[in-house]
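Worked problem 6 (solution included).
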Amino acid sequence: MTTTLPTAPRRERIPPPAPRPPVLGLRTSRPDLLVCAAVLAAIVCVQGWNITGFPALSDDEGTYLAQAWAVQQDKGLAHYTYWYDHPPLGWLQLAVVTWLPSVLAPATLSVAPMRPAMLLVTAVSAVLLFALARRLGLPRWAAALAMALFGLSPLAVVLQREIFLDNIAVLWMLLAFFLAASPRRHLWHHFGAGLAAAVSVLSKETMLVVLPALLVTMWRHSHRDTRKFAVTGAVTACGLIGLTYPLYALLNNELFPGPGHVSLIDGIKYQLNRAGSGFILDPHSGAHAALHSWLYYDTVLPLGGPAATVLLLASARWSVTGRALAGPALAAAILALVALRPSGYLPAMYIIQALPFLALSLAGVAASVTHAVLRGRLPMRRPARRLAVPGAPSPQRPVGRLLGRASGDAQAVAGAVPGGVLAGTTGTSPRAAGLARTGLQPVRRGGTRNAPARRTVVAALAAGCALLVVPRWYHGDRIALTADANSPYRQAASWLGDTARVPRPARTRVLADDAIWLDLVHSGYRPGTGVIWFYKADLDPAVGSTLPHGWRDLDYVVASPTVRRDAATLPLVRAALRNSRAVAVFGAGVDRIEIRRVNRAGR
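Solution. The predicted structure is:
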């Protein structure tokens, strides 16, 4: 008699869940590449046309470019004493970008001719924004919308043309978000995000407040098993690179205050104790004036962007788009809260840092509204007969938990039914399989018969938004494409560079702002003590020592709007203006530039 031992029943092997399809990128998706290239071409054309003529040159632009020139000429980190007002990495990058033009044509290294360098920065930032939007799950048209909002808004056209450190910092922060949202979840991507964030902060220190939002994005897009390593590595990389700045100050014995030298601590104290701009909603404050200047060019991003940010953050618990854009929306919210400080300093270029996040939030809300109108939500109803599925969960279990596990169990459940069909859905659809496990069936509101009506509603909404935005944008961009706001500066530089009027520029001393400083250096004036940045005449002891008789040691004053505005707090500059007469005036009104000859009678 043969005896056989019973064996355990053979279990069928359950295949692993199908991997999530990666979001197509520019390298693998031809439609993405074409759409991005088309929007980028529009941005480059609009921002590049008349870039040297509008907006008017600013003193900050000249300062950053003059500091880059000093680096190129091996004169130090600044054209005057570097006092740790900003980290130097921003204008070090400017020195690299403008190095080749300065070698080929040294006279072109001035503010207006070097503005095209910002066109490259804006182009890279726009491409990164499009790629980030696609990585965060926005449809192609929404990513293009974010890119267009970022690069074609009249406010963006004006501010992104100017040589501001904020534009460079935005590029690096967008790269950090792009790496943090990597679908491959490689550790080195997150390390790279930390490095890019550090470069962004060292380019403009105010980007430091955006780091918590970057951490949220990194946390959401890192793998659960390696999340601790990814976040720790990113924070470490960011911290180590950031510490190079105080380390530089320490090695130069300029970390702590002391007699006879500048210090990093003094620079930080100056920034923290800087005179505030007032509350942004106070009509008599400087912050309100900055807000008014933003709204003059555009109302969509400064007003619609924060509203979209609030909607995304409020809906993050139940909205897929809200969760996906939680990081960028949080960045926009943090920057808005910083701007609302009653005692904070709010410069006009501050909004540059928020532009990409505001654009991304608006595009995300537009995508959510469009999806809600076209598809609607999927209400659940119980069928008349439940389909028995071996091993199906109890109907008392919460539906939300079942839907959350649907993607992992979809194929296993589908394999329990002949043909892989559950309630009319295939086993390859995780959501449909998850619904089938609960005995629920999806029903679209209105069905397909309402599709034409839904598309009509979307078209009407899009047309309404276009009618509200396009005419205003057209007017603002038309001004940027046609106005010449810098003719007075060119005429003033030409007048002072004419040896028939100023025969010995190397022995002539001119007080001017930094917008024209490099032009005069190229015309033969001695940098630093021949052509003098007007702030330094009162605030830099090294420059003051070269003016033993004060304003009487000057020959000319270039009275630009910036010089006239800030002379009230600068005694030497105020005295030079009072004891001089205009010999040439270029432009009219408050934007005029006067060349004033200092009265020699008092010498």
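Discussion: The radius of gyration is 30 Å.
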